[in-house]
Amino acid sequence: MKYIETLREGERVADIYLCKFKQSAMTKNGKPYETVILQDKTGTIDAKIWDPNSQGIDDFEALDYIEVMGDIISFNGILQLNVKRIRKCREGEYDPKDFLPVSTKDIGEMYAELTGYVNKIKNEYLSKLVNSFFIDDEEFAKAFQYHSAAKSVHHGFVGGLLEHTLGVVKLCDFYSKNYPILNRDLLFSAALFHDIGKMKEISRFPENDYTDDGQLLGHIMIGTMQVAERIGTIPDFPAKLSSELQHCILSHHGELEFGSPKKPAIPEALALNFADNTDAKLQTMTEVLGSSDGKPEWLGYNRLFESNIRKSSL
Amino acid sequence: MKYIETLREGERVADIYLCKFKQSAMTKNGKPYETVILQDKTGTIDAKIWDPNSQGIDDFEALDYIEVMGDIISFNGILQLNVKRIRKCREGEYDPKDFLPVSTKDIGEMYAELTGYVNKIKNEYLSKLVNSFFIDDEEFAKAFQYHSAAKSVHHGFVGGLLEHTLGVVKLCDFYSKNYPILNRDLLFSAALFHDIGKMKEISRFPENDYTDDGQLLGHIMIGTMQVAERIGTIPDFPAKLSSELQHCILSHHGELEFGSPKKPAIPEALALNFADNTDAKLQTMTEVLGSSDGKPEWLGYNRLFESNIRKSSL
Amino acid sequence: MKYIETLREGERVADIYLCKFKQSAMTKNGKPYETVILQDKTGTIDAKIWDPNSQGIDDFEALDYIEVMGDIISFNGILQLNVKRIRKCREGEYDPKDFLPVSTKDIGEMYAELTGYVNKIKNEYLSKLVNSFFIDDEEFAKAFQYHSAAKSVHHGFVGGLLEHTLGVVKLCDFYSKNYPILNRDLLFSAALFHDIGKMKEISRFPENDYTDDGQLLGHIMIGTMQVAERIGTIPDFPAKLSSELQHCILSHHGELEFGSPKKPAIPEALALNFADNTDAKLQTMTEVLGSSDGKPEWLGYNRLFESNIRKSSL
Amino acid sequence: MKYIETLREGERVADIYLCKFKQSAMTKNGKPYETVILQDKTGTIDAKIWDPNSQGIDDFEALDYIEVMGDIISFNGILQLNVKRIRKCREGEYDPKDFLPVSTKDIGEMYAELTGYVNKIKNEYLSKLVNSFFIDDEEFAKAFQYHSAAKSVHHGFVGGLLEHTLGVVKLCDFYSKNYPILNRDLLFSAALFHDIGKMKEISRFPENDYTDDGQLLGHIMIGTMQVAERIGTIPDFPAKLSSELQHCILSHHGELEFGSPKKPAIPEALALNFADNTDAKLQTMTEVLGSSDGKPEWLGYNRLFESNIRKSSL
Amino acid sequence: MKYIETLREGERVADIYLCKFKQSAMTKNGKPYETVILQDKTGTIDAKIWDPNSQGIDDFEALDYIEVMGDIISFNGILQLNVKRIRKCREGEYDPKDFLPVSTKDIGEMYAELTGYVNKIKNEYLSKLVNSFFIDDEEFAKAFQYHSAAKSVHHGFVGGLLEHTLGVVKLCDFYSKNYPILNRDLLFSAALFHDIGKMKEISRFPENDYTDDGQLLGHIMIGTMQVAERIGTIPDFPAKLSSELQHCILSHHGELEFGSPKKPAIPEALALNFADNTDAKLQTMTEVLGSSDGKPEWLGYNRLFESNIRKSSL
Amino acid sequence: MKYIETLREGERVADIYLCKFKQSAMTKNGKPYETVILQDKTGTIDAKIWDPNSQGIDDFEALDYIEVMGDIISFNGILQLNVKRIRKCREGEYDPKDFLPVSTKDIGEMYAELTGYVNKIKNEYLSKLVNSFFIDDEEFAKAFQYHSAAKSVHHGFVGGLLEHTLGVVKLCDFYSKNYPILNRDLLFSAALFHDIGKMKEISRFPENDYTDDGQLLGHIMIGTMQVAERIGTIPDFPAKLSSELQHCILSHHGELEFGSPKKPAIPEALALNFADNTDAKLQTMTEVLGSSDGKPEWLGYNRLFESNIRKSSL
């Protein structure tokens, strides 16, 4: 397979790619053509189908995997694929992992580690609640492992939500061992649930984009409501505990201006906010600095960190 | 009945008041006594029961109505009631309206006006939803009419939630007639529901204080969840419409730093934010300036308005 | 007439347009040419006059109406008009409304509605003052009806200042009926005057751009001074009332950081601030969403509303 | 004369003071009495007239000079004057300078120095304008010399407005010699006028408090309008120059959130902002640190400077 | 020993306390007396020595340990000690730990744990540097263990600086195991040094107050300079590493407005900022909630957390 | 010499320029070429060396002076130099002042004026300290005179640091004459040192870019440490004076969010902040408006001044 980041002007391409986007358009002279964006895990490339009679042109939609034949040209300094022939592929002809960004860690192992923490929750109500999602609900569990934690920024890849959640849970585990004021059961539960709203805020791969609900309600609201609804199905779940768990989820961004409608008001909410922020920012730093080859050279201004940034020299 | 604001040093009191607060305490010399706060609609007064053998002392709790006999003294320049005798009253001996702040408008008439707007909603799903609260659920309707919209600040009285909601709905009615981009059904529904979360955020009178849920979740979250839950019981309620209505409720404070987890993203959400703010602030101004007797004199710095304020001269 | 938004590459044009801008320039090889921007109510197009001997080239200035003959080409993907021949038009050959953005509402009807409110002002001093502008001063009245309320953003079209002022007055009318603390005469007068400074802050169409005074002083300052000056010509105008009216005008942006040197300190000033903000933002929303065809699709991030925005689904 | 700051418990007083405030009140037992605040240049003291038949009690008003006889007591740890007898004084019996805070510099000399700068203005229009206030208008000149620049904070004493204005003009003189981009005539004129609005924002001594106009309009607006009005009486005053001068006055606070409706847009406006800020803050520092006796000891947190402050050790 | 928090009105006291403060004063009637504040680890009490001839009155200074004899009275509702006799104590008569707030953890054990981390640093230059402070410099080591990390807020007790530093190092240890982008040696060194400036910013117990240098320079600046100076004594210390370590110290508050002159620009600086913030806030939460007896009751508004706070119910 | 700003398409160039930047690159077709940026004091131009066998191509580095022969072409509307031949120049063939921006004032005269102020410092310790840098250390003195005060913005030219420092010292001289609370010796010393950290924050010309230390530590920190270190070599330098001087340097940006870790806490620190800000902003205004030819025309929005700006009309 010829990865997109390796393509050069003048080359002929005949390979399978994911069609990320497809739209009919019209040239300035009124001739119809198709604009397509192709993707693999190394990047994307614009493709044009100028000939409306091109073979296979009507057989595929966005998010299909397609085999394309064509030539690489350079237009205004940017590479473009001039498509001659297209064929929609069948499942089995391709491995989705070649076309989507994926966690560098093993998803199965991460999930096993995560469920290890699930099993440590002793409070019967929280245990029931957490199990009902992560252990008993196979569809949820599968989707959770596959989901991304972001459209871009940090953990924006297959397995990203799992990797981030595991990172947060592990920090919370460390906190609860070192700061006796924290209740481990409540903190673990809150950590496990804190970003599940992202499964509805962001659509699944390959789309991985904000949903209508995501834009109108946001993952904080969505996740809190999911947990509240499920609690409603567990008899005698203590009301105060329910409110505390929901509070942890909705205050986990820490500040009103970051989208939390309440500031952390109990120790576990505060700890969750720190864990989420620490894992998110250190992962972002890792992703941003990752492509540099280890030397302490400045990468220029980064808006998130409000600073020029670089690796350290050691 | 002798209203609290008219009491003077040296007077003897023998009348019924609401007991807002009761607590046992100890003098510096180790003698037990009771601290009580009495309330009627004109204000509150501290009362002390120094003699642990005072009659009736153990028969009542906070939020009971009690008949007290005692003397008004002045301690450190503040009036205090020295209680000699106490008797817990039975329902019927008193009229709660004498002891609580109440809307100056007729609650029944306001609710009739509000249901008039309910009936104007044509969309079948929104109509069903709104009716299920305001018309079909008598307990909700009764509680809604009785509730306050605040612990203090604006509309902090019996009927306050109703009065504020009606004010907001009327503004929305005016908006929807003048700005065609607004959908009346969605806007009315959002206006009716926007503050119902306050019924759980703030406890009922006479307590009228923040609840545990109110502090942990807030009325924006609580109200949105109540509406979402009820929508779940209405078959075929359009998902997009559901999200839009929830969005209006959760964005009605207009800014993240005011506790809305999302900024208004659709015209109706923006309009609701204006209506809520306009009614709230003009009512606050009315309450603050109300006690001044009409002359344009400066009342000093007001933190909410970040300015010295006064009435105008006309 | 061939509207600019319909022009296509390769077409020949021979029609009248407004010349918005004209400047002599030099090619990289040192040959002189003219850059011109043409405008009609559907948009603008760049035009170049490459031949210094082109007929009519020296006869016109910016803001003249001109008949041009030439060809549409595409340069760097943007349409451009290659001008061959130009002729300056005489008044009567064109209708300015074809070349400028105009309110979708009837200007005469709006002004009649506005003067209806003028007549409702009962206070003799305010009535005299308001009449002296809107009724007695024909030149002012004519200019007021023609003016825009903005360079771009909201109400940036012929009649825009009138349409916005009317919208604000109507909101104030509604407020004054529902909130007894507001004095109608003062509020109406303040609403009528609140943006008249824009007539000097922004030049008349077709220029519609910030003036020197506009940039140095701003419409808040200019409008307040105009009103203060006129008050000086009305005998016995009460000093307090004069200050209150000026205060309403200068505080109508509501916050110091929005350019008001004082925060609203009297109820009418607060109400005017709400009316101005409500009308401005709902109109902006209408203008921004207007071009979308009714479906609830996201328009992307809008800086003014600090959110992605879309229409609602109803 | 016995200065207020030297009074001690148990002393008898028989001296002249300024009556800053007078109000009738009622004891908790319903007996009428008078509350009075007495002032001299060293401070103020509360005085009570308990006997409604006290001699002279009805003959004076606030801001009269009165001779009082009475005894100093301590109430709740604060000194108070128990008045026995009062007599309103005639002009000539007292020297106002003993009762009001006064500049430590000679007012006549300062004004002479200020008019020296007036004479350096060469532009005929600016010269006419400035002369019309500071030289030709004797009443203005006298009031200007006597006025304070603040209710409290910096330059809040007789001659304060003059002292501050002179300080600002001198800084502007230095700037204009060192930064050629600055026009001296415009900068001097702006400096001379920048705070004249305070003469209407703050009432004259001994009251020295915010006026109604001061609170509604503020000295920036008032001063700008005064200058604009006077310009209207000078034939052919260049319009651009008029706008620039007004702009300097209204932008001299430098930031919108400090009450300037425009940010400085021309070099002279920027320079005036620096001069005003520099003189105001260094004078404030001088006043705050002045009472300490020269040793570098910390005075605690100062809200204006957002820091603990002290003198330096040299 | 009778602890201060147990004293009651009417009791006679004859015990040893730390004199925190001593000042001569004058009654309103001109009689000299002494004001003294006494302290033990449970609190403080005001004491007055009214008789200038009281025995021992001239023999002691602030921060001496003194034996006092006197009576407890109540003045304005606050307990006060009326001192009759005083005697300055000799070392050995008292145990300082009874008079100062002390960490609840064993200082020796904590320091042993800390030096364990010191030994893990492999980079020869960082190892030399860290050892030169924590291992080789006994005076530093002793002072470090004894010092507080704050005047009040978090870790404001003997051993507080050590306890906080250890907490931060342990978090950094956890981070460096989980986030490969972090260099452990640099991060450990930065964590160990991050608050050593507090040893000069805050004076030693029993005073424990801001020093002159602390107020003028702050612990961030002081600590960075101490490290820079020591680096200068280590031959061939890499310049880049030196800058990175100093950068970590000076950016550890994370935001300019929190007193860091630079934002974190390398991963280790970012991680240190998270570790410092996490340990400080969780400890603050522990201290604030610690006095409540475990029930989830609201403690009211806390300025640091900008929220009402309480413990959770589990 | 042919200045870069005068070059036109089609011209042949054969002249000496400074090579600001040099990098090897690869065309899309895989052919190696060199990208070079050439600079003289009038601007910069991109140059390409397409032929890897071009003469002289390997003999020079960035920041060498080179003689180039080639042709000016236009690529995507931007001028570019197609290099045919290159030759590295020897010292003496060129005058650096032709290639770098330089102060319009005489550097020698400015330094003489500066040392005049150095000599006015009477305090023996401050005098020794200041002399040790500006008089005794010839290398420092030479570098100081040559250095820029910025990468761009204000005083970003050879001699800029000197010119700015002199401007600040002169303002401080004026302040110290007019505000007696200021100590001249301390203020002069602080002004002289306030920006010396820029000599290590920004590299020397021709590079004039942020150094690694500059980005990690900043000139405030660097300068303070340089002064602190030198003080350590002066016997008996008073500790308090040392802290005050360091405090002035580190607080001279005035606000934490501008990178000062402390707000000004003593009068001299406050004055230095005003002097630095005044000179910097007036110089920036001068540089920004300088290119306009004196007419009061608007230059558009300036981000630093947050306003459209123009010259005044006088």
Please, could you describe this protein's structure?
The structure is a homohexamer of 314-residue chains. The first copy, chain A, folds into two domains: 4-98, Beta Barrel (OB fold (Dihydrolipoamide Acetyltransferase, E2P)), CATH 2.40.50.140; 103-289, Orthogonal Bundle (Hypothetical protein af1432). In chain A, helix 1 packs parallel to helix 4 (160-178), helix 5 packs across helix 9 and helix 8 (218-231) packs antiparallel against helix 9. With 314 residues, chain A is of the alpha+beta class. The relative contact order of chain A is 0.09. Chain A is 39% helix and 18% strand. In chain A, a hairpin with a 4-residue loop joins strand 6 and strand 7 (307-308). In chain A, the strands form two sheets. In chain A, strands 1-2-3-5-4 form a five-stranded mixed beta barrel. Chain A has a two-stranded antiparallel ribbon with strand order 6-7. Chain A is built from ten helices and seven strands. Chains in contact: A-B, A-C, A-E, A-F, B-C, B-D, B-E, C-D, C-F, D-E, D-F, E-F. Chains A and F meet through loops of A and loops of F.
